[in-house]
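User: Could you go from structure to sequence for me? I need the amino acid at each position, not a summary. Structure tokens:
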């Protein structure tokens, strides 16, 4: 871990290089973080690989095999997120707020979601609630209570979609 001014509670770190870092019981592998502030973060079986983040605030996140390149995130607030095989290139996110999300191979920018399950999505400025998507690409779609498969959309505002 390469961190600067990281304040953490209940964390266990492995192979870390940190500056002014306060951590206890966090388990991480090859994390690169800048100004990561975590309060009562419970990371059980948290496995992170090459995560580069700025001002990431997380609670109870479980990461598996995250591969990120030049990921710049500011004030990312997440709760009980499970990521699997996320590959990002030059992702710039500001104020990403997520709750109970499960992502697989997502590429997103400025996404605000709640209880979503995504697979192979490419989205920009998407605001969704309780959606389950598979291989969705959308452009300017506004929908409510719909079931989609293999869609192409951008800047979608949806609520309660499956």
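Assistant: Here is the amino acid at each position, in order:
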């Amino acid at each position: 871990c390469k961190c600067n001014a990281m304040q953490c509670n209940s964390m266990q770190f492995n192979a870390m290089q940190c500056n002014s870092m306060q951590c206890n019981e966090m388990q991480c592998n090859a994390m690169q973080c800048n100004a990561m502030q975590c309060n009562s973060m419970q990371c059980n079986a948290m496995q992170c690989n090459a995560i580069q983040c700025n001002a990431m605030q997380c609670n109870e996140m479980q990461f598996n095999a995250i591969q990120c390149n030049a990921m710049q995130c500011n004030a990312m607030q997440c709760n009980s997120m499970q990521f699997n095989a996320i590959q990002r290139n030059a992702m710039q996110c500001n104020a990403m707020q997520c709750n109970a999300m499960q992502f697989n191979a997502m590429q997103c920018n400025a996404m605000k979601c709640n209880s979503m399950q995504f697979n192979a999505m490419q989205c920009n400025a998407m605001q969704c609630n309780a959606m389950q998507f598979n291989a969705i690409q959308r452009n300017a779609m506004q929908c409510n209570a719909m079931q989609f498969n293999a869609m192409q959309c951008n800047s979608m505002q949806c609520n309660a979609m499956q």
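One structural detail worth keeping in mind: The chain has no helices and 19 strands.
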